[in-house]
Amino acid sequence: MNLNTETIKAVNGIENLTVESGKEHLMEVHFDNDIQGKSFDLRPELPLIIYL
Questions:
Q1: Is residue 31 classed exposed, middle or buried when 0-12, 13-18 and 19+ CB atoms within 10 A define those classes?
Q2: Could you tell me the strand order of the sheet in which 39-41 lies?
Q3: Could you give the CA distance from residue 52 to residue 39 in angstroms, rounded to a whole number?
Q4: Is residue 19 within 8 Å of 8, Cβ to Cβ?
Q5: What is the C-alpha to C-alpha distance for residues 52 and 42, in angstroms, rounded to an integer?
Q6: First and final C-alpha spacing in the chain
């Protein structure tokens, strides 16, 4: 992934949002600084992990 595009630079400029290159398609969403210590891994149906 080209992390130097104007779109990626704009997205990375949003507070508390980061786009990084990785070995697989995956989105990780963190709520409330993971205070509950819970996570929900929705793979393989969705490339998404939710942390609460």
A1: exposed
A2: 27-30, 48-51, 39-41
A3: 6
A4: yes
A5: 14
A6: 28
How large is the average pLDDT for residues 26-45?
96
**Ordered DSSP codes for 1-52:** --TTSHHHHHHHTSTT------SS--EEEE-GGGTT--EEE-TTTSSEEEE-
Give the H/E segment covering residue 31: none
Q: Residues 6 or more apart from 22 whose CB is under 8 A from it?
A: none
In percent, the amount of the chain with pLDDT more than 70 equals: 100
Alpha-carbon span 21 to 39, nearest angstrom: 22
If pLDDT is split at 50, 70 and 90, which confidence band does 30 have? very high
